[in-house]
Design a protein that fits this description.
Blueprint (H helix, E strand, L loop, with lengths): L1 E7 L2 E9 L5 H8 L3 H6 L8 H12 L3 E7 L5 E11 L2 H4 L1 E10 L8 H15 L4 E4 L6 H9 L14
Parallel strand pairs: 5-6
Antiparallel strand pairs: 1-2, 2-3, 3-4, 4-5
């Protein structure tokens, strides 16, 4: 989809952003489940439960969804994110982009890859004519909140959820 070069401790690595495929689903779920909160809500196992493949199929068919994987120069998946585009009537029929499930492989966290991923997502949302890119992050993730604030995101609204 798109290549970027990341300077990492005097080394340059090339990373590739591309649409996820069905074979990527286990790697994506493994990253989503690889933190304290993810472990509580995900069911990563081998073989992967079919519900994840069913969800991938639904996402993959929807033109307003982009499930993205980030690969290193060896074609190994090192990150993932999902962009959703929401058409609505406010803002004169504007499009709102929502970023979800931003994850980086554990051994590569803190090296600038997350920032590059968010910068890519901002650029992509603008290409889709979105007027805003929004996200939510759990209040139990203060490091994530600080990371997003550093990239220019503002806590402008109070988010509310009703879990079923």
């Amino acid at each position: 989809m798109e290549f970027s070069i990341l300077a990492l401790n005097q080394l340059f690595i090339m990373i590739n952003f591309r649409n996820a495929t069905k074979k990527d689903v286990p790697f994506i779920v493994k990253m989503i489940a690889d933190d304290a909160l993810g472990k509580l809500r995900e069911d990563y196992q081998e073989p992967l439960p079919i519900v994840y493949y069913d969800a991938f199929s639904t996402i993959n068919k929807d033109d307003n969804q982009e499930l993205i994987v980030v690969e290193d120069e060896n074609s190994e998946i090192i990150g993932t994110l999902q962009l959703s585009y929401l058409q609505y009537l406010t803002y004169q029929g504007g499009i709102r982009a929502q970023i979800e499930a931003v994850r980086i492989r554990e051994d590569l966290r803190g090296k600038g890859i997350g920032q590059l991923m968010i910068e890519w997502a901002i650029k992509r949302a603008k290409q889709k004519n979105a007027h805003v890119l929004q996200l939510t992050t759990d209040k139990k993730r203060p490091d994530a909140i600080q990371f997003y604030e550093k990239l220019g995101f503002k806590a402008s609204h109070e988010g509310m959820k009703l879990h079923f």
